[in-house]
User: What shape does this take?
Amino acid sequence: METGTSAGVVVWLTGMSGAGKSTIARALVDRLQTFAICSTMLDGDVLRTGLNSDLGFSEAERTENLRRVAHVAALFCNEGFVAVTATISPEPEHRENARRIIGGNSFVEVFVDTPLDVCEKRDPKGLYQRARRGEIPQFTGIGSPYHPPARPDLTLHTQGNTVEHCVDCIVDYLRRVRSQDLGPAGEQPPVSASLRVAIGAK
Assistant: This one.
């Protein structure tokens, strides 16, 4: 049964480790808050240290991890929040299950499209290096595949683009397609200097 039927929205950022998901999510929440929009970020890595600390990285446990993230996002969505999630969610089934839990009218799938070699160069936590050494089995992109969305609501190409540009794209989509009240078209709140650089983190 679909649970996300209110005016809230879940922006589900999916992509490989190092793609720029968390960086974009944080910046998007900051932007939305300048419009007085109730918004929050749900980072998959952060949730794994708390709510999902009992889960490992088997296929079943990854699926359960994302199921829980989707339910938490749905709770915020049902209260009228824009909940922005940053998870790898490598399988189409993961993302479709999240859409079902949250509700299709409230779910925005955003593919953070970054080439593997760029993700490896960023590698802020050294995870790719460890995966190449065999220390992290089934690491997405190395030992386990990432299956890109076939028809995402929005695709962000981070290579050569700034965080600000990516956030602009999401805000424009929410305003035009999802009818979110984000001020007049073309209105842009001040952006900190730290966001006027190319994406360099997860």
